[in-house]
Amino acid sequence: METGVGRAGYVRRSESDWRTLIEEWAQSGQNQAAFCASRGIALSTLGNWRRKLKAGPAASSGAPHQATGFIELTAPRAPDKESPAWGVELSLGEGTVLRLRRAHAHGR
User: Residue 38: what pLDDT?
Assistant: First the structure.
């Protein structure tokens, strides 16, 4: 079940490993604290994985809830005195938005 060992005492487990551990806990009859203590697992880590797996595949993989991909963006033409203002807004998720704006060239 152990996918890899990192720093001392730290075991890296796959999503499949966590699914198995959560099933074992559910069938063990132990409370979470006792199960974690017997397996050397942090109680908070078990709780985090239970929430991730309960939320569904998108949450456990870290993928956004919508389809992802690449789109081609072309730069605006070279600025000149007649260039209009432009703006680009990019939503990065979790409420983070990147906004780029170019004011009218007249303000230069």
Answer: 94
> Do the Cβ atoms of 17 and 2 come closer than 8 Å?
yes
Whether the Cβ atoms of residue 82 and residue 105 lie closer than 8 Å to each other: yes
**Beta bridge partner(s), residue 100:** 88
83/64 Cα distance (integer angstroms): 36
- The pTM (predicted TM-score) of the whole model is 0.46
Lookup: tokens for 10 = 């730290």
Closest CA to 18 of 1, 5, 31: 1
Angle formed at CA 46 by CA 60 and CA 26, multiple of 5 degrees = 100
Predicted confidence (pLDDT) per residue in 61-108, tens digit: 555 555 567 777 776 666 666 666 777 888 888 888 888 887 765 554
Residue with tokens 């456990």: 60
Q: What is the pLDDT of residues 31-59, one digit of tens each?
A: 999 999 999 999 999 999 999 888 776 54
